[in-house]
Amino acid sequence: MKTFLFFPEHLEDAKISILGAPYDLNSSRRYGSRFAPDSVRAESRDMESNFMGMELSHLPVEDIGNTETGGWKRFTKSLHEKVNIIKEKGSVPVVIGGDHSITPEIIRSIGRRDIHVVSIDAHLDFDRELFGNTHSHACPRRWEAEMLGAEKIHIIGIRSWPTKSMIDAKEAGVHIIDAKEIMEKGMEYVIKSLPEGDVYLTIDIDGIDPAYAPGTGTPEPFGLMPKDVLAIIERLSKRIVGMDVVEICPPCDVNGITSSLGAHFISAFIASFFSR
Predict the structure, then answer these.
(1) What is the spatial distance between Cα 171 and Cα 264, in angstroms, rounded to a whole number?
(2) Residue 29 above 90 pLDDT?
(3) Sign of the Cα pseudo-torsion (226, 227, 232, 233, in order)
(4) Is the predicted pLDDT of residue 191 greater than 80, yes or no?
(5) Which of 20, 61, 140, 196 has the greatest number of C-beta atoms within 10 Å?
(6) For residue range 78-107, what is the model confidence (pLDDT) as tens digits?
(7) Res. 185: pLDDT tops 80
(8) Which residues, at least 6 apart from 58, have a Cβ–Cβ distance to it below 8 Å?
(9) For position 101, what pLDDT does the model report?
(10) Residue 150 has what DSSP assignment?
(11) Which helix (H) or strand (E) holds 65?
C-alpha cells in the first residue's frame, strides 16, 4: 500500500493512526469522495517531509490503510473495527473520508461522551433525514448531538441551511458561528469561542471557500480560507482525540489542489500535535 507521507503501515507505539474511509453512498449531489483517501495519500507523497519547521518523517505515525467498502452495514462494521484497533493502542485516529456520514460512527467507536465536536463546514448537517435517508451526509450533527448533547456541538463557517433544521439546532443549544459572523467579527472571535477540554475535529472540505477547494460535491462560496482552518487546528491540536477530513471529491477537483489541501491539513495536525 502507498501510505500517507510514506509512514509505515504498522507501528506498535503509534500516537497518530491514519485510516481511509472510502464511502460516499450517503452523498446527495456529486459522488466521488470514495476516491479521496488514495488521492490525498498520493498528494502527500509529493509534499516535503518538513512542515513549517517540523520534520514529520520520523514521528510515531502509521497509516493502516482503508476500511472495507460495500453497503452501510459492512462499511460501518469495518470502520468500528479499525477505530477500535487504533483506540486500543492509545493512538489518535485521523480518518480520510468519504462523505460526512462517517463522522458519528467514528465518534461512536471512540466511545467518549465527555468530548466536544468542532465541525468546519459550509452546511449545518442537522437534518433528521434527506430523501428518506437518515444516514445522509446532511444529518451527522443531529446524531452527534443526540449522542453527546447538543451543547457539545460547535459548527463553524456555515452559509447554507434548511430553516427548520436551524431552528431545531438553536433550540437544542448547538453552538453556531456562520460565515457572515466570521466576516464581521474575524477569526480571533472564532478562536476565542472554541470549547475547552478534549475535542473531535471534523473538517468538511466544503467549509473552505471553493476558490481554494473546488474538489467537493457540494461547493458553497464565501467560505473560510485555509489559513483560518490552520489556526483552528493549531489551537486545538493538543486536545484532539480524533479527527477527519471529509467530502473531498477528486473527480470534481482541479489539478489535485483539494486533495493536496486535505493532505496539508493532516500534516498540520501531525506537526502541531508533536510540537513542543
Answers:
(1) 36
(2) no
(3) positive
(4) yes
(5) 140
(6) 999 999 999 999 999 999 999 999 999 999
(7) yes
(8) none
(9) 94
(10) G
(11) strand 61-66
CA atoms of 156 and 181, how far apart (whole Å):
10
d(CA 72, CA 174): 27
Report strand pairing: 54-55 vs 50-51: antiparallel
DSSP 203-258: EEGGGB-TTT---BSS--SS-B-HHHHHHHHHHHGGGEEEEEEE-B-GGG-STTHH
Look at the block and give the residue holding cell 477527519. Answer: 244
pLDDT of 211 over the 90 cut: yes
Phi, psi of 62 (to 5 degrees): -125, 160
Average pLDDT over residues 127-150: 84
Instruction: Tell me the three-class secondary structure of 39-59, residue by residue.
Output: HHHHHHCCCCCEECCEECCCC
Quote the CA–CA distance of 66 and 22 in Å, as a whole number: 7
Q: Which domains does the chain have, with CATH numbers?
A: 4-274 (3.40.800.10)
* pLDDT interval class at 159 (50, 70, 90): very high
Q: What angle do CA 14, 15, 19 make, to 5 degrees?
A: 75
**Residue 179: enclosing H or E segment and its boundaries?**
helix 179-185
Rounded distance, CA 182 to CA 148, Å? Answer: 26
Q: Can the peptide bond before residue 157 be classed as cis, meaning omega within 30 degrees of 0?
A: no
